[in-house]
Amino acid sequence: MKKVIKRLLAVALVVAMMCGFFAGCGKKKETITLTIFSELANKSGEQIGWSAMMLKEKFNVVVNIIPSDEGVLETRMESGNLGDIVVWGGEDNYKTALKAGLLYNWEEDNLIQEYGPYIYENMPYALEKNKELTSSITEGASDALYGFGHNVATDSANHEPFFYTWDIRWDLYKQLGYPQVKNLDDLVNVFKEMKKICPVDDNGNETYAASLWPDWDGDMVMYVKALGTAYYGYDEHGIGLYDSDTGTYYDALKKDGPYLECLKFFNKLYQNNLLDPNSMTQTYDGMYEKVQAGGTFWSIFNYSGCLGFNSEEHVAQDKMMTSLVPDEASPIVYGQSVFGGNRIWSIGANTEYPELCMEIINWLATPEMTMTYFYGPKDLCWYIDSTGYTHFTEFGKKAYFDRSTSMEGDYAGSGTFNDGCLQVNNTIWSMAAINPLSNGESYNYEEWKSNQVDPACNTEADWRNRFNVSSTQEYMENHKYKVVPASKFSFDSKSDEFETVWESVTDVIVTYSWKAIYANSDAEFDQLVAEMIKQAEGYGYAQCVEWSVEQAAKRFEFEEAVRK
Asked: Model-level pTM?
């Protein structure tokens, strides 16, 4: 009865609040503050900028974002209150929260049908996957709905856009005479020469090949395991990497395995003064500012490469980051999934406003808001013409590629474009999904007819001519790559005892990986790796590997079924 009364009060509050938007409903009600706990967020505090203005105008809501800093999740779990909207970076913590009764059932009192109709009607397979996940957690006792995963596709026929795009300063590479890059060792040699001709960035600070950040580390150091994914085409899986083509699993501490080889690569950069020495301590934002100022020559990711560096100013100076994949690399690309991924949108069980939370998630899932999430406000940043083709506005294109651009028009005075992006940092629809508002175009700007244009500068023209391509996606398609099929696979839950072992082992791996990156000699690197292996084995590494191998076998069965 107490719960029913609480929900009725919540409904009354939402209804009263919404009345404020219509004439005749009386005085506008008090603004509601919602808390969004997001394991993927890079910023903490009140959301500001253009998306905050939209939320205030649409729902009379202020959003407070809480990232998953050290100890935050545990504290919120113990309090029994995760937040109003809860966004998960993976399934492990989601499962723990579900078992603890800390998530809201979206089917209770027809919540999703009434307040999330767009999601309910357009994402049936993603919702089905979540119900099956619930059933596996509760051993078949329940198949209730508690959310859905990110990057939902409209069909499974193709793969997602490439984002392991191997961006490099092509203007510098051209000056060096296009030296061959067969492998990672060749890259190191190219970086050494680049630093000779470009020793400082736009602000007079020292340049480096790469700048890393620790914010996204999980069971391993993110950038190290991601290099293994970008180079070998092996996906992260448990404590290690997994070859989807064969089902082979490579544990992280395997001698001469992909993780340790990639770890050595970053140590080699450090020993040659080619790695930003602040990589272990800086935030994502700190890294991004350096990329924007030309402080780096290279990134395996587009979002910390070309999307940061290729500003109007740099392009006008004929400077540009474009793709250059080593000959021996086979970057991964993920199959589109109508089931969604493992970064889950959910609602906290103790929210006073479940209907309002559902309405906001549903709003974000609509085509217009999907475009807005990616590119900024409609008409200010993008529009769809009378024939259904999608376009950037002049301002929108500038803001997307130079995210420090100050907003203007109705959104003037609300900070930069990047400030206003919703800092939850999780997608709903895949960028490769078809936008139903358009003439069959996807949400991905690279595929819009309006963007099939002439090169932006001589450097881009040179890159296009060298590879006979007109876009990054076309270039990546022409290189060898590996596709990971989208399937319904999800990891089995860990027992509390095993979870403790897992956390101890992964903490050792992350801590000693960073120490090894900063080793001043090969001998020190080898000693630190040996100590990492010794300590991890002492905490139960073998048990973690055995579990990961078992999960890899199950995953391969699911993926083979998709291939057939």
From this structure: 0.77
